Amino acid sequence: MSFNDLERGTYATTDNSGLSADDMAHKRAVQTLSRQVFQINASVANIRQLVAQLNTTRDTERLRSDIHAKTEHTRDLVKRTTAELKVLSSKQQSARGRKMEVQKLTADLRKVVEQFQGVQRVAAEATRVFVDRARHAGGVHRGEVDEPGETSPLLGSDDGSRGGFQQQQQQQQRRAVELTVLDNDVAYNEALISEREGEIHEIEQGIVELNEIFRDIGSMVTEQQSLFDSIETNMHGVATNVTHAADDLDSANEYHRRSSRTKFCLMLFLVIFIVVVLLILLS
């Protein structure tokens, strides 16, 4: 069962007649997990498209909010799917077909989780780039405006002094306004940087969780591979035993044929001997 099968809906077209209750339960579990893996794969692809818009003209608060919401939903779905798959994998599956289904589901989930990890790393790196740019821009802008300082009174006529003093006051007021605006911008940038740093921390925590999930899936793959190796070893042993049994049967048949031939020769010799003795006695 592949992602294409799920997308076409062909997973629901299998004939259920003749299946036991246990087979039906297993089939429903496999179909549910397959749909969830498909949903994770589609969600990761969507998040990848949104992350590609970070640090562009399309980068908005709504975009980042969408990325955050979809990431949280996908991470929860990954956790639930992994837990359910572990339960299904832990059951003793007698049929080889069941084992192969579980193994394929595990491989598909491992693949999409790895892709999800990659998207999360890209998002974290894009957010770090934004923080670095914001810090650099804040430092540059803060240095562009000098603090208003003491100025010496202008010498000259009273009119010139008054005009120079008014010009000086206007210049100081303009600088004060610029500093106020700049301080507001700096405060906004600092708040934005703090928010982005929080996003980075949250993304990194999510990556750590995905790493743990990835290790769990890897453990399941290892256990399943060991189980398959054991099955193959047992099958090889059975085949070897069957071959030996066939050889023993051939040997037994050959011995039986030889024994029958020997008995026939002895009986023939005995009959001839009796006939000869009778002929001698009657002559």
TrEMBL record:
Domain T-SNARE coiled-coil homology as annotated: residue spans: 190-252
Any one Gene Ontology BP term: Golgi to vacuole transport
PANTHER family: LD27581P, SYNTAXIN
Family matches, as Gene3D superfamilies: 1.20.5.110, 1.20.58.70
Domain of life: Eukaryota
Presence of the UniProt keyword Oxidoreductase in the record: no
Name assigned to this protein: t-SNARE coiled-coil homology domain-containing protein
InterPro entries per UniProt: SNARE, Syntaxin, Syntaxin_N, T_SNARE_dom
Database matches in Pfam families: SNARE, Syntaxin_2
Family the UniProt entry places it in: Belongs to the syntaxin family.
Signal peptide residue numbers: none
Assigned keywords, A-Z: Membrane, Transmembrane, Transmembrane helix
Transmembrane segments: 264-282
Chain spans, region Disordered: 1-20, 139-170
